[in-house]
C-alpha cells in the first residue's frame, strides 16, 4: 500500500482531527472499519480458514496506527516517481481493500525501466490465498515467470 485512494481517504478536517486526538489517545480503537476478511477472500471455505488464523487482528484499528498510515502513505505517494528498481505489481480488479488505480499510478509514475503491472479481472485482494485454486495458480505462475526472466 503506497497510497490511500482518494475514494476512501477521509476528507478534511477528519485527518487533522484524528492526528490531534492520536497525540493523546494513540491506542484508542475507535476507527470504524468493516472486517476486511470478507472483502479480501473470495472462496467461502478459505474465509473459514482465514478466520481461524490466530495472528489475525480482529479489533478496530487503533487511532495511532491509522494516523501513521495516513502520514506514511502521504510521503510514499509523493515519491512514486523515485522508484527505479525493477518491480511487478499484481492487483485484482475487484479489490475493494486497496484501489487498483493506485497500483496503476505507481506503474505510470515510477521511473523504473523494468516494471510490470498485471490486473487480474474479477480477482479480489488476497490473490495468493483467497481466490480459487485455479486463480492462485495463475498468479503464482505470473510471479515465477517474472522472476525467472530476471534470474538468467
From TrEMBL:
<dbReference type="Pfam" id="PF12146">
    <property type="entry name" value="Hydrolase_4"/>
</dbReference>
<protein>
    <submittedName>
        <fullName>Monoglyceride lipase-like</fullName>
    </submittedName>
</protein>
<dbReference type="InterPro" id="IPR029058">
    <property type="entry name" value="AB_hydrolase_fold"/>
</dbReference>
<dbReference type="InterPro" id="IPR051044">
    <property type="entry name" value="MAG_DAG_Lipase"/>
</dbReference>
<dbReference type="InterPro" id="IPR022742">
    <property type="entry name" value="Hydrolase_4"/>
</dbReference>
<feature type="domain" description="Serine aminopeptidase S33">
    <location>
        <begin position="1"/>
        <end position="131"/>
    </location>
</feature>
Amino acid at each position: 500500500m503506497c497510497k490511500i485512494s482518494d475514494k476512501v481517504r477521509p476528507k478534511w478536517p477528519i485527518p487533522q482531527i484524528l492526528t490531534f486526538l492520536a497525540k493523546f489517545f494513540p491506542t484508542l480503537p475507535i476507527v470504524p472499519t468493516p472486517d476486511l476478511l470478507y472483502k479480501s477472500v473470495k472462496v467461502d471455505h478459505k474465509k473459514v480458514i482465514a478466520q481461524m488464523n490466530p495472528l489475525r487482528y480482529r479489533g478496530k484499528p487503533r487511532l495511532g496506527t491509522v494516523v501513521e498510515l495516513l502520514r506514511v502513505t502521504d510521503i510514499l505517494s509523493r515519491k512514486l516517481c523515485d522508484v527505479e528498481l525493477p518491480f511487478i505489481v499484481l492487483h485484482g480488479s475487484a479489490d475493494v481493500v486497496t484501489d487498483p488505480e493506485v497500483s496503476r499510478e505507481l506503474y505510470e509514475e515510477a521511473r523504473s525501466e523494468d516494471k510490470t503491472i498485471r490486473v487480474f479481472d474479477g480477482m479480489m485482494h488476497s490473490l495468493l490465498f483467497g481466490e480459487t485454486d485455479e486463480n492462485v495458480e495463475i498468479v503464482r505462475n505470473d510471479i515465477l515467470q517474472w522472476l525467472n526472466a530476471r534470474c538468467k
